[in-house]
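*** Fold description ***
***
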Amino acid sequence: MNHIRDLQDIGETRRCLIIGGGESVNHFDFEKVPNDIYIISTNNHLNQLANMILYYDKTMQDYFKKHKVSDRTLLLGFKHNTIDYTCEQCTHYYTYDDMEFGDTGYHALQFADRIFNFKQIYLIGYDYKVNVKSYHYDEERSDEKKLNDFKKWNIKEVVPKYEKMTFRNKIYNCDKNSDLKMFKYKKPY
């Protein structure tokens, strides 16, 4: 397993699409995404499409211990001297020092911009909206505590971090209804 910095500038001159867990994923036509776009999945969201999967969660560690990813897919897990959320399939790891605090989507965007250096970055599933059923497109229902945690940490804490961050490369959101208003709306095709 190699450190994430071994992937420095893999995206130079290229475009990528980062898939988050928001509801807008359900309304996005992935068949129209051009073949030249590198796909980064957060957690297990549509990971069968991904060139790279990024996760930071014990639940996801357990998931990838049980579910095989494609040989062509890079799998990045979180590793620290006291916490290790990696599995045998992991090709690369990252630590607290590699990122600013936030959710997995926030980490993926930081890495795509700052380390991988993709020239154009597209986001789908970065909605930051909570409905009565769930805040992830693939969950039937989240309990009230999870929804409250999401409101507290993701909306109140993470969105202002996006707004303050300086990015090197062009970032577009494929969901015009997203609460991340600092990114222009554009589809990658």
Remarks:
- The chain has a mean pLDDT of 90.
- The chain is about 20% helix and 20% strand.
- The radius of gyration is 16 Å.
- The first helix runs from residue 58 to 66.
